[in-house]
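User: Second chain of the day. Same drill as before.
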Amino acid sequence: MTATTEPKRIVQRGLWFEEFELGAVYEHRPGRTVTEADNVLFTTQTMNTQALHLDAAYSENTQFGERLVNSMFTLSTLVGLSVAQLTQGTIVANLGFSEISFPKPLFHGDTLYAETKIADKRESKSRPGEGIVTLEHTGRNQNGDVVAIAVRKTLVQKKPS
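Assistant: Same format as last time:
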């Protein structure tokens, strides 16, 4: 490269519709370690007064023995962990979620790791230049236990011509 030559510039983005490969599994790294502050802030911002998230004394006497991370925080973080790799700048819209479950709880200090399987894709019938991609997100803690599963349909841009 000479002094007058501009370097090649690469902008991080998600995948265009054509780049999604059916059956491929993307592992999203790094993971996200959840703190007490994360949980309390999210829970109070969303007006969720559930004692299992906020009241340490109450939670000590439950089957869990401690406070649980708000499952909506877990879901939001699970999806968020996938954005840079899959949908940054290429998504048009979330079309909906289905089959959301939380097989095991997440606790303060746990690290959430995410992976996404491309379950389905098809061209949009009503929106030229876009396609619908079905993503199966799975969240695991640092021990490999599944703590969240969500199926999400997204509307994604096709690669510009």
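The longest strand covers residues 111-123.

User: Great, on to the next one.
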